[in-house]
Design brief:
By secondary structure, this protein is mainly β. The chain contains 2 helices and 6 strands; from the N terminus they run ββββββαα. The strands form 2 sheets. It has a 4-stranded antiparallel β-sheet, with no helix packed on it. The chain has a two-stranded antiparallel sheet with strand order 1-2. The chain is globular.
């Protein structure tokens, strides 16, 4: 095998999986990302940005604040290609964190145990296909969390026990195949259902057979097509 930049190829020319540095052991409140090679992260308030040794497109971004809202929104969010890992211990606000990061297809599981705000966290992440089951046990505001995630295929059963606002949460997530109905059933029957939930599932899953079937069992007051 021969290494060209950060990619590994065989002598015969077959590409192998992109290799990124091990993200374990990151300092607290640091995120490791792969960035478009013709750009660099910038305009991230209060951040210390360090390029990882040996790589031209991988950066460690340290944000000492517990407020990570709008993290990449002013730095050309489409240039974020991959989230390799993150140590988000103690972070409380992830609102708009990945807003308009239209190139990412998934993100790894990271610590969200203290997070209260996830509004617009993945809005307009149009290439996002999957997300892990984040700990949302303390989240109050989930407004438009996945708004316009038009490639998302499934919805994890997030803990919504403290959620008060979930309106537009999965607005226009056309390709969702499963998970919407289970989450609706949980939210609508929990001890304190979210007070604001209009259009939470508007057109969610409508372009898939199973998703449309789930949508038909969600009432219109929640954005479904059911009675």
């Amino acid at each position: 095998m021969i290494k060209f930049g950060n990619d590994i190829v065989t002598v015969g020319g077959d590409w192998l999986k992109y290799e990124a540095p091990d993200p374990s052991g990151l300092p607290e409140r640091t995120i490791r990302v792969r960035w478009a090679s013709d750009a660099t992260p910038h305009d991230i308030e209060g951040a210390t940005i360090t390029r990882v040794a040996g790589y031209t497109d991988i950066y460690d971004i340290h944000i000492p604040s517990d407020k990570w809202n709008s993290l990449f929104i002013y730095s050309g969010p489409q240039n974020l290609l991959e989230v390799i890992g993150a140590n988000t211990r103690g972070v409380t606000d992830m609102g708009d964190m990945f807003n308009a990061c239209s190139s990412i297809t998934t993100v790894p599981l990271f610590d969200t145990s203290k997070v209260v705000e996830t509004d617009n966290m993945f809005t307009d992440c149009t290439s996002l296909r999957t997300v892990p089951l984040f700990d949302t046990s303390n989240v109050i505001n989930m407004y438009a969390m996945f708004d316009e995630c038009t490639s998302l295929t499934s919805i994890p059963l997030f803990n919504t026990s403290k959620a008060e606002r979930v309106h537009n949460m999965f607005w226009h997530c056309y390709k969702v195949e499963s998970g919407a109905l289970a989450l609706y059933q949980q939210m609508s029957s929990q001890a304190n259902p979210p007070a604001v939930h209009g259009s939470a599932f508007f057109k969610c899953g409508q372009d898939t057979v199973t998703g449309a079937a789930e949508l038909a069992q969600i009432p219109s007051s929640w954005g479904g097509t059911g009675a």
